[in-house]
């Protein structure tokens, strides 16, 4: 298979790293060559976190070059916008609509742009865009902490991943503590259904 590149962008505390790990684990289950990396490892709450997942026979380096992402999975709108350098017109941007104002905005006394402005700017790079109301679906699943799994489910629902849905579910089961499993499985399914219909 040709290389398939996924960039995950969010802020610390959103579970981007676990989501990247789940994608990597699913790829291994499916017998695919995969490289996972965390570019900015400021995983403390509020810090920028970017992870990359590269799948394919000829993948040797873990970083994605500019304009080469097949999917940009945005956990937070402003962080999604900040990572447009990875996007081309072929890229699907799957974005969580929950806004988390970065600490530097408050420090510089700047206001967070509205969601419509962010969406308009993203559409200058690609028309392929899916918005996911992560907080609402996570609430339906039973815990706000499952937004990352909602987004993984939504990603699986797009049918663009070179991974089997079952492998991704298995990966989540391996990475999530057993006591939280039921809620996370529900979150995955809600995410899956929300993009499968679009």
Would you give an account of this structure?
By secondary structure, the chain is an alpha/beta fold. The protein has eight helices and six strands; from the N terminus they run βαβββαβααβαααα. The protein has one domain: 3-Layer(aba) Sandwich (Pyruvate-ferredoxin Oxidoreductase, domain 3). It is 40% helix and 19% strand. The model has no long low-confidence stretch (mean pLDDT 91).
What tags apply to this protein structure?
alpha/beta, Pyruvate-ferredoxin Oxidoreductase, domain 3, 8 helices, 40% helix
CATH architecture: 3-Layer(aba) Sandwich
The fold-level CATH name is Pyruvate-ferredoxin Oxidoreductase, domain 3
Largest sheet: 6 strands, mixed
N- and C-termini, Cα separation? 26 Å
* CATH first level: Alpha Beta
Give the arrangement of secondary structure elements:
Blueprint (H helix, E strand, L loop, with lengths): L3 E8 L4 H14 L4 E8 L6 E8 L15 E4 L2 H6 L9 E5 L6 H5 L7 H9 L5 E4 L1 H8 L5 H11 L7 H11 L5 H16 L2
Quick take:
This protein has a single domain (4-137, 160-176), classed as Pyruvate-ferredoxin Oxidoreductase, domain 3. Helices cover 40% and strands 19% of the residues.
